[in-house]
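User: Quick sanity check before I run a bigger batch. Here is a single chain. Can you write out its predicted 3D structure?
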Amino acid sequence: MRKILKYFLIILIVFVLIFFMYFFIGKAEPVDDVEWGVTFSVRPVRDFGLDWKVVFMEMLDDLEVKHVRLIAYWNEIEKEEGLYDFSDLDWQVDKVKEKGGDIILAVGRRLPRWPECFEPDWIVDFNEEEKQERILAFVFKVVNRYKDVENIKIWQVENEPFFENFGDCPDLDKEFLEEEIALVRDLDPSRPIMITESGELSTWIGGARRADILGTSLYKWVHNNWWGYYKYPIPAIFYQRKVALIKLLFDINEVIAVEVQAEPWGHKPNQHMTAEEQDISMSFENFEEIIAYTRKAGFKKAYLWGVEWWYWRMKKFEDNKFWEKAKSLF
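Assistant: Done. Predicted structure follows.
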């Protein structure tokens, strides 16, 4: 038993060393010509007390954003069972199309922004099987409505479904996720499907096994109730090597940095923090650093997270540095 334990420990140590050397040692090859985009959500704009349509048009006209991830929130579109109001999402899709932009459209129950899952009020007393039937019906409606819109390039099914320890969501049902993916493929086989994963806290295997495109988050400065504020000690080479490995092991067309942190992650919501409190996790220097880090990590496509905050910061604190820096990217 002692010999077996000894050999096991040696193998474990060797494995850990190989893992560390592969993911943490080496020089990253930066990408200069990144295709930058943004994720837009009406939710933070409303929290900031702003008109989301005004912010949306400033994003398109002043920043000149051409790549936008939009979100089909279930609780916004189907506020009453079987009654669908697509007017807000139609407006967003039409405006991006008018400006010659392209769209990633996220569908499902678990979607970007806190609390991650967005169920309409009328479904609260349904059991999980009944909820899943309604989710499939909702996904069917969304995909059928927009599948003929040429500038929608990618369907995103759910958001970070394998990141189960974050958000107010039910436990992941992998079989149901596969049902959703199969439904979208059947309704629109012409477009790729993206599954998103946590960049720092996931192996990416769950998404890579099921998707055509993998979308990853990219965060540097975060906060939680146990450790307070901290910075992920992850070098850029980590992402380059992780992308290379996942492409080698799975049939993935590309990996997109679809949620690059470009707003604060603080101890309370942004609208309740002072500018100084926001700067702890997203100062202008941090903003510039995350942009450089994304390039260095080798991502050819990257969607910044926080366009709503840049605009609010400019209006609330008369601080346009973030907005103007973003403008130079687009």
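The mean pLDDT is 95.

User: Great, the batch can go ahead then.
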